[in-house]
């Protein structure tokens, strides 16, 4: 038997714990494109600087849907003009034709056509 006293277990220093870093702005400013819908979608991306990473997916998907919709709208053909629009166009064409053709132009050509050639 030994007279040595057993050593008490030494307390270990607690391990340091780290918290995930908060959102850090990237500082990238979107450049205006001149298309309101595209600019609005890009502005949504700027909001990502203030969201935690787990909120990014929803914003990315929303922006992607908006940009796809905008691109798809470029491929659609305009609808034919309504009946009312066709009437307005016809009225404008009639007025335009009456104003752009001088009254003497038609009268003199008719007069020459009815004059017997000598």
Textual characterization of the structure:
The protein is mostly helical. Among the domains are: 36-73; 83-110. It is 52% helix and 0% strand. It has helices spanning 36-46, 56-75, 83-100, 103-114. The longest helix is centred in the middle third of the chain and has 20 residues, at 56-75. It is rod-shaped and about 135 Å long. The model has no long low-confidence stretch (mean pLDDT 74).
The gist of it:
The chain has 118 residues and is an all-alpha fold.
For the largest beta-sheet, the strand count, sense and barrel status come to:
none
Q: Note the total helix count.
A: 4
Q: Total strand count, please? A: 0
**Shape field:** rod-shaped
Q: What characteristics describe this protein?
A:
mainly alpha; about 120 residues
List the helices and strands and how they pair.
Blueprint: H1 36-46, H2 56-75, H3 83-100, H4 103-114
Helix pairs in contact: 1-2
